[in-house]
């Protein structure tokens, strides 16, 4: 991540932030000291990035905590767009969700710490519905395009159910089997879900 357009620059080398490294170190720190008890100075010491620079990129600590949802939504969008129209809807959704979780090693490394944090920290638990809304909206839109006869509320309910099932599968993975690929664990769990179109 580089400085946003219009942001003042200091002389010398441009400011560049390795967000993956910041996130991984922040999760480790929060898992040890707690989210609320960790100050910006603590984060700066753990990440090697000044508190001023961190605040320039992240207006709040929760912005660091939820940073992974946007790229997950982008992966979901790309996977759905690449799915052939003749793939059964349940298979298409399951595969795209697994791709949104990501097989990338750096994502795998921080996933367990992230899951423990956002499922136990009250401030972050309260933010979950808003944080997941773009992901759910993307999936609901795809389901609606595949099932044009389905009411929008039904498509959103299905997408929300898939998000809840995905999150629960990830929690189980973090607790029971963190050595396997989390995306594979999610895809296997979602095989138990089906989308059935009611008879006319």
From TrEMBL:
Any one GO MF annotation of this record: DNA-binding transcription factor activity
Keywords recorded for this protein, A-Z: DNA-binding, Transcription, Transcription regulation
SUPFAM superfamilies xrefs: Homeodomain-like
Domain of life: Bacteria
Keyword DNA-binding in record: yes
Domain HTH tetR-type span(s) in chain numbering: 16-76
InterPro entries: Homeodomain-like_sf, HTH-type_TetR-like_transc_reg, HTH_TetR, MftR_C
DNA-binding region: 39-58
Protein name per UniProt: Putative TetR family transcriptional regulator
Source species of the chain: Gordonia namibiensis NBRC 108229
């Amino acid at each position: 991540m580089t400085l946003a357009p219009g942001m003042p620059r200091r002389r010398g080398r441009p400011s560049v932030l390795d967000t993956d490294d910041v996130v991984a170190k922040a999760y480790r720190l929060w898992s040890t000291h707690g989210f609320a008890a960790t100050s910006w100075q603590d984060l700066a010491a753990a990440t090697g990035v000044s508190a001023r620079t961190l605040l320039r990129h992240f207006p709040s600590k929760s912005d660091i905590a939820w940073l992974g949802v946007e790229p997950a939504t982008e992966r979901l969008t790309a996977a759905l767009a690449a799915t052939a129209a003749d793939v059964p809807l349940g298979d298409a959704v399951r595969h795209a969700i697994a791709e949104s979780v990501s097989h990338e090693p750096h994502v795998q490394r921080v996933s367990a710490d992230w899951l423990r944090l956002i499922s136990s920290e009250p401030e972050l638990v309260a933010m979950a519905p808003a944080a997941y809304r773009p992901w759910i909206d993307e999936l609901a839109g795809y389901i609606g395009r595949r099932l044009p006869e389905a009411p929008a509320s039904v498509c959103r309910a299905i997408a929300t159910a898939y998000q809840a099932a995905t999150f629960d599968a990830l929690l189980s993975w973090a607790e029971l089997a963190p050595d396997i690929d989390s995306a594979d664990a999610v895809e296997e769990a979602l095989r138990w879900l089906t989308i059935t179109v009611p008879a006319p």
